[in-house]
Amino acid sequence: MGIFDNFFDKTIQRLVRDQLAVIESENNFLIGTRSASQSERDRYTYDRSEILEQSLEAWRTNPLARRIVELTSQYVVGGGLTLNCSPQPAADFLNEFWIHRLNRMPVRVFEMCDELTRTGNLFILISSDQAGMSYLRVIPASHIEEIHSRANDLEQPLSFKLKASLENLNPDPIPAYDPLSDAPEKPTMLHYAINRPAGAQWGEPDLAPLLRWLARYSNWLEDRARLNRYRNAFLFVVQAKFASEAARKARQTILNANPPKPGSILVADENETWKVLSPRLESGDAKKDGLALKKMIAAGAGIPLHFLAEPESATRTTAEAAGGPTYRRFEQRQEYFLWMIEDILRVIAARRARLDARLKGEIDLSVTGADISSRDNGALSQAAYYMIGILDDLRDRKLISNVEFLRLIYRFFGESVDAESMLREAAKQKDDQGANPGGAPSGASSGGFPTAKVKSPSEPPDEDPKKNLKDKIAT
Which of 15, 43, 80, 333 could form an SS bridge with 48, CB 3.0 to 4.6 Å? Predict the structure, then answer.
């Protein structure tokens, strides 16, 4: 190699290194890069897509994953949701939206809760017709490529970009809901997330930390099933002194043609020994291994083992104590889900209000769900029943105020209320009854939902102390 060849070879190597350095600095690689609007606390796009795909596959094929998702929906919305709304025009419209055949909200809420648990994100697409009726669809989180948000706040999305494979359906990004600039004739999207780290845009699936252990438990169980399938299989091993290889093969051919049947008698000479080979399963050790894997899954899901068909103890007390933290977790998820439904309904009503003047103004709307656990309702009612007499005596002695009396009573009922506002409402209803004894109280809800009956002072008190509580405070 001459001096010129050596010079040009070094020059070429330097140019190649410089070119590769430019490519790396431009972040042209898919893996390891983030978009400008993506938070540093979010997963990389490829990692998030893989997690969502694995969560869906686990829900489809793994019974434990399916059961974990079902349990959350059964406790959060299994008892049904109750809508309370006033004034009457808003209540009628929301009722119509709720039962519309294209919305089917009484059954769609289960689908929404499943998707929220399975992906950690819920993208709600809302479109409205010319009459102001809105229609709701759940867009899979795997179909969203990117969330564009405000430069100074990641929690205020501006638009949602679909993946390139779906841009033929809607090439433009879908605008996020903005109460100041929303147009009912254009579709809009809402985004809700759970298990979201502070400063992140995307939520995390409940199954994300369980995927590895679900796969390991599934593989372990499949191996144990395969071994148990062949547990009763065995082989005969015949040992003898043969004169030649041909004699051994001839003896094996005879035995293969006439193998001994179960229960038959086998006679062999002293030169031939029979043995049986069969797999040996150490079932005791295997049980501990499977239980350890299942405990890891249960701990990650926040549910006790007896929820997954694995009783830890034969005592009912232990099972009830283990269910306490689980019910708290379901209560937290239910609180978020009810707030989410209420937020969606307010958006639906706001879009209708742009076309219907009767819905303009403040709407009194609340969504309630069934009790997570009704096991202690009887004990709470009995405790409150006995405490009413004691607290009433303290109030008569002027040792506690009416506000404290009401707060303590509802505390024993297991409810959290605003005692001062309830006292004002009770006094208002009493004044309305005195002004209009034969009519309905003006404080009653005007929506199309059942309201509580207000008893007059001449009627006998109810047996249930909770029903008679407001009348007792008002007097």
Answer: 43
